[in-house]
């Protein structure tokens, strides 16, 4: 008999359980922590920029060659692109779930190389940005000038040079995107009348700037081969690229025979400004620069955000005067709150399970044996999850909550049978345990296999649903298997060791009353069951009523892929009439941000003009994110997420000439924009938008 080994060697059983528990404890320190399992299909993003081109030109000269070559790339599900009037182009290729993101990126780069010869030279000179796209937004940071002494251009360049790269290098961070970016650029506004008067074209100015604003490699003096009399060697270095507006103004465009010189300053206005004014961000209605941080796939969200906070704290010590930052959206805040609630539920469930066991067994020794299976099974499960590349998330932790009631079943069977044999046959603990294991080993294995047969098929469900609930099935199956191991090893060893005398039920006190109540309940149940078995028609009618009412209730309950929860923030999307200028859009967003900041329950509001979650890049659109106060400060029903969304929508509807609406984020960012669905209207016959 297998269990006899551990009855004779209880230390071996304890060592096995200790090893399982230690492996789980080590895994707990290393396992990734996330809100949900990683279920999103991998994506690769391609960005290009055609200066001065409109959306139609970008679509014909940039999008068409790239997308023609991209057709048929391995494992591609679909692709979608956006061509904007500012000359920007963005292509997103979505690949099959489970494919390698690095291989997908290499395949896309190879296809882009085939399209490069057919792209405009201006696009190739700007360069194409090809990278894996992460939808796991970790946080949104905002940098601002509290006293207003720092311009947005200054803030943007400081963040780009001294903050962004340091944050992206952190473990667990895959990418960072700056909202309202203003990189330094020398902007040259040509005067058409002066160009015409001097018989010049814009191409003449461009050619002059290109030829005179270069970094030249001049070589060296005194290098070999040279005569022996040469004693010194010098590396030549020139000033190279121009740095100030005055230097650009002095660039010579043309000279004539009489000595006349035409410079850039004669036909243009030159100023150091921002490279792009496509988007602008505001914090509570005040100018700011936003930055979105994205978590790397498989990284621990809590550890990554902890490193971000520590790095920002370190970097902020060296910030210039009147530069500060705020963390507007922290996705780990909801993760921490969710996991905290689940852990509390986990401990409460374990306490109630142990309490129920003690109430029925009425002996602390008997209670200790099945209770020991709980920590071993639950903690040991994390070792297997880590080995399988899974994470600790709300799905797997919820499975552990359910598993607590399952993992004690096998141990209870062992304890109750040992107790029965000691009571009915007068056996000593060791003999009763040996005989008990001969009787219950088969049923324990059988019940374990039945549970595996119930939950294991969930792990093989295809698609996104399968990816989401696979960890649920694996978690329960692993915990049940470990509990069966404990029931066959640890439980008999403890029974033979701890049971030193016959177990008797209490004859006095509260337990005596409970035993009487239980006995009466048992007799009543047997009587009712016997009567129903004699009235099969009534039993059949009752069964049909229960099944029918269950079906009707199921039909009446709203269904969704995942429940909508209060994640501590919500989005706002804006669209002004077609043709509205960006300046007009910015004024509307500043006003909205300042008004929403005054709402009770709202902590901060960041608004971004020039970019819409639904419409992409355009001067007449924008979006916002309202970060709410902590849940402890929003316990009133009118301060819950949906109530605040409704209040915001009422305010937005009062705005003239603005199509705006507020909505809560999807349960999983990337699965739809709002509630899990995305709709696209296709022009299959080439109709214009």
Describe the structure.
With 689 residues, the protein is of the alpha+beta class. It has five domains: 196 residues, Multidrug efflux transporter AcrB transmembrane domain (Multidrug efflux transporter AcrB transmembrane fold); 94 residues, 2-Layer Sandwich (Alpha-Beta Plaits); 63 residues, 2-Layer Sandwich (Multidrug efflux transporter AcrB TolC docking domain, DN and DC subdomains), CATH 3.30.2090; 55 residues, no CATH class; 95 residues, Alpha-Beta Plaits (2-Layer Sandwich). It has 23 helices and 19 strands. Strands 5, 6, 13, 14, 15, 16, 17, 18 and 19 form a nine-stranded antiparallel beta sheet that branches. The protein has a four-stranded antiparallel beta sheet with strand order 2-3-1-4. The chain has a two-stranded antiparallel ribbon with strand order 7-12. Helix 2 packs across helix 14, helix 3 packs across helix 4 and helix 14 crosses helix 18. The longest helix has 31 residues. The protein is elongated, with a radius of gyration of 35 Å. The chain starts with a helix and ends in a 26-residue tail after the last strand. The model has no long low-confidence stretch (mean pLDDT 85).
